[in-house]
Backbone:
């Protein structure tokens, strides 16, 4: 066996790279945090439009609700309202 053959045999029988146990431990927390942030960014504006449609412009549910596109534009123009 030459030196190259011995090295190839040693590499072939070596254990594979150790698994990253830290990533396995924090992966559920990273996935949970990312899904929570995405859900908040998507659901909160939709819920705000829904509430504004339910309440109308005066804050009273008695008034006829506005159509959906103007309600969405009002949320985009003044989100702190």
Residues:
């Amino acid at each position: 066996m030459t030196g190259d053959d011995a090295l190839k045999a040693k590499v072939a029988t070596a254990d594979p790279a150790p698994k990253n146990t830290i990533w396995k431990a924090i992966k559920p927390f990273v996935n949970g945090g990312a899904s929570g942030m995405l859900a908040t960014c998507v659901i909160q504006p939709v819920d705000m439009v829904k509430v504004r449609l339910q309440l109308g412009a005066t804050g009273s549910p008695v008034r006829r609700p506005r159509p959906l596109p103007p309600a969405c534009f009002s949320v985009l123009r003044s989100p702190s309202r």
Q: What stands out?
A: Residues 35 and 41 are 10 Å apart (CA to CA). Helices lie at 3-13, 21-55, 68-77. The chain has a mean pLDDT of 75.
